[in-house]
Design goal:
- By secondary structure, the chain is of the alpha/beta class.
- Helix content is 46%, strand content 11%.
- Strands 7-6-5-4-3-2-1-8 form an eight-stranded parallel beta sheet.
- Helix 5 packs parallel to helix 6 (170-178).
Length: 297
């Protein structure tokens, strides 16, 4: 199967924090290099898994730049329209673009109940950059899921190269796939990932890529080469990963990265904590994954 350059695996980047909630930039750089070593098609900096809404604009810009610096050539996309005012969004876009990113990610800003206004907003914002844009149905800003008609119109402009679909509905996913044209419906729901690929989705942007990107790269390669049986088997392993980190994400994802050799604490800026039992659960999963060659650590 042939896909365009904006298809494939977008590996999400966590933000490592120290105990005092300041960003551990040294750990971040090492983590970015580790993520890039799995050779996903793209890295996604400043995302929900990065705790992007809890970062300052200056921190978001710096994290995007350090992602580019440590990505070893893997293209980096970053969310750039988190500011409240349109003018400030444009300024942040320009500042992040100056860090060398490959493309922008625009969240839908809770405008999905106003499709015409959202279309005008997104196309207006995109006019301020020559870089490609991927859309993000970010659940943190409700209502977040756009209808397929609006997505089709945005895709038809040629400016919007994909959408991180978070509908968690195979019917809604298929509706977007029908109108994706040359763009890419990128799946975020893990249980529906294999079914979405069969239906015509062209990649994945999902939380477990933050600590298990190698599995997603493997599954995408298998599927792209026509090995659907292998892709289905790897999907089962991804389901186990998803279940292992689901409770307490993204602290649990950070702890799994730590177990996999990344110098990263599990601290977050939110109120998530990991108790003794939760940590032990992740440790048991990791030991199982190693013993069964799910991870090759």
């Amino acid at each position: 199967m042939k896909y365009n350059e904006f298809a494939g695996v977008y590996s999400l980047l966590l933000t490592p924090f120290k105990w005092d909630k300041s960003i551990d930039y040294k750990a971040y750089e090492e983590y970015v290099a580790w993520q890039a070593s799995f050779k996903p098609e793209h890295l996604f900096a400043v995302c929900g898994s990065s705790e992007m809404t809890l970062l300052t604009p200056e921190e978001r810009i710096k994290c995007a730049g350090l992602a580019v610096k440590n990505a070893n050539g893997v293209p980096v996309f970053a969310t750039t329209n988190l500011q409240q005012d349109f003018e400030n969004q444009v300024e942040e876009m320009k500042a992040v673009e100056a860090q060398g990113i490959t493309g922008h990610v625009f969240v839908t800003k809770g405008m999905c109940n106003k499709p015409e206004a959202m279309f005008d907003y997104l196309t207006s914002l995109a006019s301020y950059t020559d870089l490609p844009v991927v859309l993000y149905e970010f659940p943190g800003m409700q209502p977040h899921c756009m209808d397929s008609v609006t997505y089709g119109k945005l895709a038809a402009t040629g400016k919007f190269k994909g959408v991180k679909d978070t509908t968690c509905s195979l019917t809604a996913i298929k509706n977007k796939i029908e109108v994706q044209g040359e763009s890419n419906v990128l799946q975020a729901n893990i249980p529906l990932l294999y079914d979405a690929y069969l239906a015509g989705a062209r990649g994945v942007v999902a939380t477990p890529t933050s600590c298990g990107a190698d599995l997603f790269v493997k599954m995408w390669a298998q599927f792209s080469l026509g090995d659907t049986e292998g892709a289905e088997k790897t999907h089962r392993e991804i389901i186990l990963l998803d279940q292992a980190i689901d409770s307490g994400f993204n602290a649990s994802a950070k702890y799994l990265c730590h177990l996999r050799g990344v110098n990263m604490g599990w601290y977050t800026r939110g109120d998530t904590t990991l108790g003794e039992a939760r940590k032990r659960s992740i440790e048991v999963f990791y030991d199982y994954a190693k013993a069964n060659h799910i991870f090759n650590d």
